[in-house]
Amino acid sequence: MIRLACLLMLVAAASCTQIRNVTDTVAERTVGNPARTVIQPAIEAQVGDAAQAQRITDCVIEYATPGELTRIAADATSIEGPAPDITLLIADILSRPATSQCAAGAA
In the chain, where are the structural domains located? Predict the structure, then answer.
């Protein structure tokens, strides 16, 4: 009986991981692309290299939460560039240890 309970817990945990992965993929496709149009130019202005900015942008998108990506994507229609709070949000995401490591590898 205990083995069955343990097996059921493992199956449930695996299902949760799959659901989370699907949710992350949907969020990336829905708001990741518009967010990319905001993030990449902001980073390129800082690093001066389009290819490097693209790799760093990938890191920001990978480590941003779906809510953060939604906030950034909402700024995609601005013709004046990212709003100051969006620029700060991008900088905050970049300052996280996992994002910093990813960005350092992208350099």
Answer: 11-106
